[in-house]
Description:
- The chain is α/β, with parallel strands linked by helices.
- The chain has a single domain (4-214), classed as Decaprenyl diphosphate synthase-like (Undecaprenyl pyrophosphate synthetase).
- The protein has helices at residues 4-10, 15-35, 55-78, 94-107, 123-140, 150-156, 202-213, 223-227, and strands spanning 40-47, 82-86, 114-121, 167-170, 189-192.
- α4 (94-107) links the parallel β2 (82-86) and β3.
- α2 (15-35) runs parallel beside α3 (55-78) and α3 (55-78) packs parallel to α4.
- The radius of gyration is 19 Å and the shape is globular.
Amino acid sequence: MDGNGRWSEQKGKHRVFGHKHGVKALRKAIVFAAEQKIQALTIFAFSSENWKRPEEEVNMLMELFFTVLGGEVKTLHKNNIKLNIIGDIASFSDRLQKKIHAAHLLTANNTGLALNVAANYGGRWDITNATRQIAQQAVDGSLNVEDINEALLTQTLSLSELPDIDLMIRTGGDYRISNFLLWQLAYAELYFTDTLWPDFDAQSFQLAVDAFKSKERRFGQTSAQITS
């Protein structure tokens, strides 16, 4: 969800103004995804690299995250949306961790849209963390090295309960993945748009979905194999 800061700067406002409007755009995206019966929506809210930003902005983002969690979780639950925060949440404050755990518990049994929020997340962290868990199993003797394969690593990563990602959308005009779900994006279609996140609405989302639908997804096969 890139472009909150630039959006606010273009309007002569403080960056927090853009982040707050980014929350409004997120609400629209969630509504669209739920209405379109999309199985899962994963948003990159705060990367492990974002700690390098100015302290004032980081503190503001943490407070905004806490406030949004408190204000939105009941609405998500009412609409049968399952909320899952992925990432190294142990680095957050105790009160934010408690808010996250409460949100998980409240929505755990919901069967509608799976809304995954990547917070203090990085694709390299995810793979490293999974590798560490597998290595520990091997050291403990509960896992044979010969049994380590792609399927096992996939099962140990974040979002292991969901199918592979179909579509990644990046707003804000940059053409890179920025350490987001590196393993899970292996065969995803990538969609980049110059639209800054606060301006991303249902029509913008639909354009991305339409672009996805126009793709021929071969997964290593030939077109003839797909159509036969």
